[in-house]
Amino acid sequence: MAAGETQLYAKVSNKLKGRSTPLLLEPLLAMGFPVHTALKALAATGRKTAEEALVWLHDHGNDPSLDDPIPQEYALFLCPTGPLLEKLQEFWRESKRQCAKNRAHEVFPHVTLCDFFTCEDQRVECLYEALKRAGDRLLGSFPTAVPLALHSSISYLGFFVNGSPADIIREFAMTFATEASLLADCSVKPCTKQLHLTLAHKFYPHHQRTLEQLARAIPLGHSCQWTAALYSRDMRFVHYQTLRALFQYKPQNVDELTLSPGDYIFVDPTQQDEASEGWVIGISQRTGCRGFLPENYTDRASESDTWVKHRMYTFSLATDLNSRKDSEASSRCSGEFLPQTARSLSSLQALQATVARKSVLVVRHGERVDQIFGKSWLQQCSTPDGKYYRPDLNFPCSLPRRSRGIKDFENDPPLSSCGIFQSRIAGDALLDSGIRISSVFASPALRCVQTAKLILEELKLEKKIKIRVEPGIFEWTKWEAGKTTPTLMSLEELKEANFNIDTDYRSLPWACASVKKIKRKENGSW
């Protein structure tokens, strides 16, 4: 096993928790397969039938990684169907013929809704429920037509989705991410930036004009039914090349792979030192075994050829409820969710939706000066007449004014330069994640108010959201040695120092009392 794979395995928990799918799992358990192995087979085959999972288990009988606790990676895509898909596939073929293969040919036509994320094998069924809930919730507002605007640059060509339809699609992605977190305990990052359907990417610059002409020939007037499709892939082979076997090959030596036409082989270009000319070392997707194979028996395949489609949600409003019920029953085997027109949220679902919309983010302050330069940090940066100067680049450029002078910073230290950088990075990460902030509460400690201000600046909310200073969340019994609360900056001093403080906010007495009670109970261990 390679060192990289060993590290990867070590990061994944093998705890079996949550519910399983008895109808699919029980036949496999009855044949003597362990629970974790049966769940792995179901996840690898899209949880369609026990028969497919059984075939997978039979093929992987000699797979050395069969018992390794590696879950699949999942992603959600918005995919066109019907005439538009046919025209896009025609563009794929023609652009490849005229301009050679580019990165867009690695994946089918799609709009990415969520980046790839991991989900434990026993919780995959919960992802399907998350997809169905998100689709049912947004069905009524989903756009009947998704406008596509052509965008071209020197290395990218594709359709952009703009306006209110894009907002609704992003809301669907965020709803799925929230439901997946609640139901499947998955960390899903929905797409919050420009939605796009890529036509060509990383192509030769002299092909740009030809690609643009082919793209303009795609008729966009056709009505299109869009589907949200959940796919999975094997996370171990993300950066590998994928080959497709063209011919059958029977091994001549024990270290060679058996090939059948249509088999997919994962090849790591960086690990081919042992292979002779004309041969490669690869891992068979069908069997999980590793060995040598003749390269001329294969052809390059696309990245998404090895992905597994799990479930789809089709955005359509059928008027015939009886035909909908019939089609819904028949679609369960194919993994497609048909939306329900008569939708109603139960009280539990409504509560979950409320919880999903109102979450609390707890953020620790950035690096503080005294943690780096020790308790005597103030003496290192003070002149004899009590003025501040910067003896080291990790000291802040300046300090805010305090009515009692610089000495009060000793027990209420500011952030270091690294702490300021950390806070901005945290804000930038929150902005990139698409999380919406409505209220900010901060400890009255200067380092905490600084952290809140810097995060809001990165979120572009420093003028819209005022910081509510809450003494009840100030912790001082661990780091500070004194038995009394340190002298903190007043609200007026904070405002004078250009902090956007909510001076109308009043701390709740029970909050302070609860915090003090907990601190007494913990015997000052905070």
UniProtKB/TrEMBL annotation:
Q: Which SUPFAM superfamilies match?
A: Phosphoglycerate mutase-like (SSF53254), SH3-domain (SSF50044), UBA-like (SSF46934)
What are the entry keywords?
Cytoplasm, Nucleus, SH3 domain
Residue intervals of the SH3 domain? 238-303
Protein localization: Cytoplasm; Nucleus
Q: What is its main location?
A: cytoplasm
Cited InterPro entries: His_Pase_superF_clade-1, His_PPase_superfam, Phosphatase_SH3-domain, SH3-like_dom_sf, SH3_domain, UBA, UBA-like_sf, UBASH3A_SH3
Q: Which GO terms describe its biological process?
A: negative regulation of T cell receptor signaling pathway
Q: What's in the GO CC field?
A: cytoplasm; nucleus
Note one Pfam family from the annotation: UBA_7
Boundaries of every UBA domain copy? 15-60
**Coiled-coil intervals in this record?**
none
- Xref: PANTHER family: UBIQUITIN-ASSOCIATED AND SH3 DOMAIN-CONTAINING BA-RELATED, UBIQUITIN-ASSOCIATED AND SH3 DOMAIN-CONTAINING PROTEIN A
Q: What is this protein called?
A: Ubiquitin associated and SH3 domain containing A
What is the organism field in this record? Cercocebus atys
